[in-house]
Amino acid sequence: MNTDSLARLAIFSNLEPQQLDVLKQYSAIRTYPKNTVIIHEGDEASTLYSIESGKVDVYLSNEDGREIIINELSAGDTFGELGLIDDASRSASVRTTKASKMIVIQKSGFNELLSSHPELGLHILKYLTKLVRALSYSIRSLALMDVYGRVARLFLDLAEEEEGVLAIRHKLTQQDIANRIGASREMVARIMKDLIKGGYIHQQGGVLIINESLSQS
Fold it and tell me: What is the secondary structure of 121-160 as a DSSP string?
């Protein structure tokens, strides 16, 4: 692995070449099959992960095994950042949804770098602040929107525009939706039926088309 991969990470974007060389000594490339739990909530936090390829879900679960997905990450994203800062255990679990390749960086390397370059702490703090703001937005949506609103917000967040059509082109089951918004699959099924009946969405092959009226509802 070369230092270019580390330099592309937003959290380390302002590091000098010699600083990246320090991190490289504590970094490795690892691969994970689909449906592998990389991090369990409550685990010791000693590593930072950067996704080179693939996709993961960040989720919380209760004692009954019910899950709520709080984020979906893909190539270029990182997770486990808080573990670099404090000694608390992992706050969420992470599972691959596609075969994935990761850069894994040991906390000890980050600590060595920070001890010799304490000014980097401010950059890291600013980066983490952005993450917290994004998470606060997600929590606000879950707390203040009704289930209908959460489904609509999720669809609009996941949809991509191509040739003037707003659509979700990857497979998304009713259970996937339920896990992401903290609702039951049965409730999601009823809302999907209402959205289709109301002309807000429609299926075209394996693609979910989002009609303009949904963003105005």
Answer: HHHHHHHHHHHHHHHHHHHHHHHHS-HHHHHHHHHHHH-E
Q: What is the pLDDT of residues 125-173, one digit of tens each?
A: 787 787 777 766 666 666 557 888 888 888 988 898 887 888 998 888 9
Q: Kindly report the average pLDDT of the chain as a whole number.
A: 85
Show the tokens assigned to 163: 């040739």
Same fold, 3-117 and 145-214: no
Alpha helices (runs of H) in 12-166, residue ranges in sequence order: 17-24, 82-85, 107-116, 120-144, 147-158
Domain residues of the chain, as ranges?
A: 3-117, 145-214
Q: What pTM, to 2 d.p., does this model score?
A: 0.68
Report, at the CATH architecture level, how domain 145-214 is classified: Orthogonal Bundle (1.10)
Distance CA 127, CA 122 (A): 9
Sign of the torsion formed by the C-alpha atoms of 155, 76, 23 and 118: negative
**Residues near 145 by beta carbon (within 8 Å), at least 6 away in sequence:** 153
Cα–Cα distance for residue pair 182/134, rounded to 1 Å: 18
- 3-117: CATH class: mainly beta
Q: Are 188 and 146 in contact (CB under 8 A)?
A: no
| 3-state SS class at 162 | strand
Can you give the length of the chain in residues?
217
**CA atoms lying within 13 Å on the CB side of residue 139:** 7
